[in-house]
């Protein structure tokens, strides 16, 4: 992720993408949500941003690192994600 251009991914976009990769909600609170990957057991804890604000860059980076290290997304999907675009997960 480069610092040159802001990446603006909303929380609903991110959770929809992760759901498409096989994640399900495991727990939710006012300020965070836990998602678990059905097949691998990988757990992601996401901080919910304030209403109408994009997901923080540090949270996006954390998700990218987990998806990459666990092999849960293709390289092309990860590359698009790094560019601030969420591909349609299959």
Keywords:
about 20% strand; about 90 residues; 3-stranded antiparallel β-sheet; alpha+beta; globular; 3 strands
Report on the architecture of this protein.
- With 90 residues, the protein is of the alpha+beta class.
- It contains three helices and three strands.
- The chain has helices at residues 11-20, 57-70, 75-82; strands at 23-28, 32-37, 43-47.
- It has a three-stranded antiparallel β-sheet with strand order 1-2-3.
- Strand 2 (32-37) and strand 3 form a beta hairpin.
- The longest helix is centred in the last third of the chain and has 14 residues, at 57-70.
- The protein is globular, with a radius of gyration of 12 Å.
- The protein starts with 10 loop residues before the first helix and ends in an 8-residue tail after the last helix.
- The relative contact order is 0.22.
């Amino acid at each position: 992720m480069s610092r040159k251009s802001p990446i603006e991914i909303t929380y609903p976009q991110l959770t929809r993408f992760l759901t498409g990769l096989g994640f399900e909600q495991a727990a939710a609170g006012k300020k965070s949500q836990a998602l678990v990957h059905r097949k691998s057991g990988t757990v992601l804890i996401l901080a919910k941003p304030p209403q109408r604000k994009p997901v923080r860059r540090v949270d996006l980076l954390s998700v990218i690192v987990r998806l990459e290290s666990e092999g849960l997304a293709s390289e092309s999907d990860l590359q698009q994600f790094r560019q601030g675009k969420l591909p349609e997960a299959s």
